């Protein structure tokens, strides 16, 4: 049974620009919920966690695209830039909520970045993503040539730092952050596995 | 109205404490036996059977035994205590508890002179507590106080909130409240109280000895290794709530004499 061909032909027909809008909308909904009680009695933390978790999910989705093509023949490569930029958008909003709504105090923000390892790790991940977001356009790909591919390998350490940030911040022994870390390690490991040649119909 | 008592007056006088709403107090909880999400306890704690309930009091006491909730309540005087509640995660609330002084219960059991510590244990019911399927902590949850802390008039056993029976997610039917310590010291749904002469183990201390000490007094000058304890956010302030400075002993400075001569940065 071939499930790859229908997925690939459907994927070819989906226009990409509406997906950018779709991915950009949820934070506005969260903000509305936060203002109207929909995020519970501590909306700042809820907003922070929701944005951080979505950021991780987009990062995992982005990492899955290459192994999906190499090992299963599912080609979603034309969505990769959109997924990557969405991940960056959620990481940036997560950081912004932490800065503006959570910590608020400028002096403490710097102290936290320097003193708190899980925040140092999270910030390092964000900094690694910055050049990737800036160069996620056709002009940069042309301009940078083969260097572009090299540069965008920075996403691997960035995603690992993101997952580590989550593992480090929870209290007690919790499963959820370890599941993200496990999925990410697996998706990275698949890159070292030689591709199996598939027969295409 | 609130019975402040001589010891409570000073802390209460610092500001008029406006309690959080019943909804805030009962929907934002840490009770990992029901899950690690803040809304998990409110969602799942209904399953906990709280009647009948009994508490075993043993160890260095004159009258050890298993006491039913009815038996305990018949012999205790319930009063209201409006206390600040400061979580180690740097959020806080103000809760109007109903309860009785722990010292009354311990005196009922007859504390022997050799006792130096009080150990507490939470119920462990895998059938009723979905969270204990995960080893987030070493179940059952255990806590402990030094005897003088336990006998302090600010230390209560809570049985209600806002004059209603305490909801399961807040530790029904009987929980400890030690208002000058981080919230996790105030152990919930207690089934055993043991008087000992050695310092008992406590769940969070066992899980992370460099992060959670035996004393765990609220102290703005001693940070948690992963976050600052200098400020806190009152739950219920909405999306733009600012942070407030955290007070030494959570504002209950009348307990300071319990720790005379102790380095509180070392004994955190």
Summarize the structure.
With 201 residues, chain A is mostly helical. Chain A contains 11 helices and no strands.
Strand residues, percent of chain B? 15-25%
Count of helix runs of chain B? 7
Shape of chain B: globular
**Count of the separate structural domains of chain B:** 1
- Helical segment count of chain A: 11
* Highest-level CATH class of chain B: Alpha Beta
What would you call the quaternary organization? heterodimer
The helix-strand sequence of chain B is HHHEEHEEHEEHEEEEHEE
Please describe the topology of this protein.
The complex is a heterodimer of chains A (201) and B (268).
Chain A: H1 4-13, H2 17-24, H3 26-36, H4 43-72, H5 80-103, H6 106-115, H7 117-134, H8 138-144, H9 146-151, H10 155-169, H11 175-189
Chain B: H1 5-13, H2 22-27, H3 40-44, E1 54-59, E2 65-68, H4 69-75, E3 79-86, E4 91-101, H5 102-109, E5 117-122, E6 142-146, H6 147-151, E7 156-161, E8 164-165, E9 175-177, E10 190-196, H7 203-207, E11 231-234, E12 244-245
Parallel strand pairs in B: 1-10, 4-11
Antiparallel strand pairs in B: 1-2, 3-4, 4-7, 5-6, 5-10, 7-8, 7-9, 11-12
What does this entry look like structurally?
The complex is a heterodimer of chains A (201) and B (268). Chain A has 201 residues and is mainly alpha-helical. Chain A is 77% helix and 0% strand. Chain A has one domain. Chain A contains eleven helices and no strands. In chain A, 26% of the residues are buried. The model of chain A has no long low-confidence stretch (mean pLDDT 93). With 268 residues, chain B is an alpha+beta fold. In chain B, 17% of the residues lie in helices and 24% in strands. Chain B contains seven helices and twelve strands. The two termini of chain B are 34 Å apart. The interface between A and B is medium-sized, with 28 and 31 residues. Chain A: GO terms for molecular function: electron transfer activity; FMN binding; heme binding; metal ion binding; oxidoreductase activity, acting on diphenols and related substances as donors. Chain A: Belongs to the MsrQ family. Chain A: It is found in: Cell membrane; Membrane.
């Amino acid at each position: 049974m071939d499930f790859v061909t229908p997925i690939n032909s459907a994927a070819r027909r989906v226009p990409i620009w509406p997906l950018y809008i779709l991915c950009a909308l949820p934070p506005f909904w969260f903000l509305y919920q936060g203002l109207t009680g929909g995020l519970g009695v501590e909306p700042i933390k809820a907003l922070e966690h929701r944005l951080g978790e979505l950021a991780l999910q987009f990062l995992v989705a982005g990492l899955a695209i290459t192994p999906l093509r190499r090992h299963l023949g599912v080609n979603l490569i034309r969505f990769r830039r959109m997924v990557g930029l969405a991940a960056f958008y959620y990481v940036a909003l997560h950081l912004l909520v932490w800065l503006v709504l959570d910590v608020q105090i400028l002096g403490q923000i710097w102290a936290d970045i320097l003193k708190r390892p899980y925040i140092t790790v999270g910030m390092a991940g964000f900094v690694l993503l910055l050049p990737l977001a800036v160069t996620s356009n056709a002009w940069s790909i042309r301009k940078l040539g083969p260097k572009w591919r090299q540069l965008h390998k920075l996403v691997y350490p960035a995603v690992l730092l993101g997952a580590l940030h989550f593992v480090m911040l929870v209290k007690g022994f919790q499963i959820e952050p370890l599941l993200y870390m496990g999925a990410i390690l697996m998706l990275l490991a698949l890159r070292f596995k030689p591709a199996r040649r598939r027969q295409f119909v | 109205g609130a019975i402040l008592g001589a010891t409570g007056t000073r802390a209460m006088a610092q500001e008029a404490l406006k309690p959080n709403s019943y909804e805030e107090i009962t929907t934002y909880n840490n009770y990992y036996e029901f899950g690690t999400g803040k809304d998990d306890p409110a969602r799942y704690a209904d399953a906990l059977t709280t009647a009948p309930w009994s508490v075993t009091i043993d160890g260095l006491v004159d009258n050890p035994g298993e006491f039913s909730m009815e038996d305990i309540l018949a012999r205790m005087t319930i009063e209201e205590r409006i206390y600040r509640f400061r979580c180690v995660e740097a959020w806080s609330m103000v809760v109007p508890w109903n309860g009785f002084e722990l010292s009354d219960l311990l005196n009922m059991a007859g504390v022997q002179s050799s006792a130096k510590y009080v150990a507490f244990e939470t119920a462990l019911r895998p059938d009723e507590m979905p969270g204990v399927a995960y080893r987030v902590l070493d179940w059952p949850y255990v806590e402990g106080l030094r005897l003088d802390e336990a006998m302090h008039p600010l230390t209560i056993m809570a049985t209600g909130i806002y004059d209603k029976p305490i909801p399961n997610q807040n530790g029904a039917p009987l929980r400890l409240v030690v208002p000058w310590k981080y919230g996790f010291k105030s152990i919930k749904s207690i089934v055993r109280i043991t008087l000992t002469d050695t310092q008992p183990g406590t769940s969070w201390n066992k899980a992370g000895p460099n992060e959670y000490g035996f004393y765990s007094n609220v102290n703005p000058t001693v940070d948690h290794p992963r976050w600052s304890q200098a400020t806190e956010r009152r739950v219920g302030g909405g999306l733009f709530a600012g942070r407030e400075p955290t007070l030494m002993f959570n504002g209950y400075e009348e307990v300071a004499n319990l720790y005379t001569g102790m380095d509180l940065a070392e004994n955190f």
